[in-house]
Amino acid sequence: MIVVTSGSAYLDVDAYAGCIAFAQLLNLQGLAAKAISSAPLNQSISQTLRDWPVGLDAHHATEHDHFVMIDISDPSHFDTCVDAQRVVEVIDHHPGFESYWQERLGPRAAIEAVGAACTQVYERWVEAGLFHAMNSSTAALLATAILDNTLNLKGQINTARDQQAYAALADKAGLAQDWPARYFSECQTAIEHDLPAAINKDLKRMDAQLPLPRVIGQLTVWNAQHLLQTQRATLVSTLQAHDPDWLLNLISIDEHCSYLLVGSPASAAHLAELLDVTFVEQLAKVPGALLRKQILRAALKLADKPLSK
């Protein structure tokens, strides 16, 4: 059995959709595969998406299974069911482990600078000549993951490959023109319903050697101004409980910007230099939405640390 899975901390929509769609592709190719995860689903997987007739499989990994990793390449953060020695393929778009996997898997390690891992998964369906066989719910999941990861196709990380993939998938799924606004608004409603839980499901701890806050959270909403005006104290207290040195990247899709909220003046000073932004009362507004992985990439470059391990 081939187990298609992702990380251990949480599952976002890119990992969720990518695992489901890639397992379906392998099965169509005659390879027994299951999409599984032991991680909690975060708020990017809205209730509407969870109600669609495609989802994760029920399967307990065994010592005979092999693993395909989607949207992750750092072995220290793999799902707890994964034996890294039995990983046979990696599809990811986060920097840091390109050489590590290239040495082990060669062409079966695809760690590429695209906006979404689901763009890569879509391309695998096309390369296999099986896109015609993809069901509409899977197409809708993949399209939504691309929307989320590329910030409605307007983020700095968005590429022509992401745009092409989204157009083909949205057409196949029959997504309405207002789907992006509906999706991101639903995510925001769920986030606001239990803000601490939403933050805790999208936190990453940074390498202490990097010029970054030790903990970075990220939330993507349709419009962030209301959230900052009404729940800033909750945002601060939730992050502060993890570490006094923190950053929250609050992405506002409708405003096409990011708000960077930090826990200390020292963090603000470091990030102001790193990203060339101005903080006022430990809050900075960045035109053009910014992703956490882009902040990490800037820090790696500043630290002169190779993007491969």
Automatic annotation (TrEMBL):
Protein name in the entry: DHH family protein
Entries under SUPFAM superfamilies matching the protein: DHH phosphoesterases
InterPro entries: DHH_sf
Taxonomic superkingdom: Bacteria
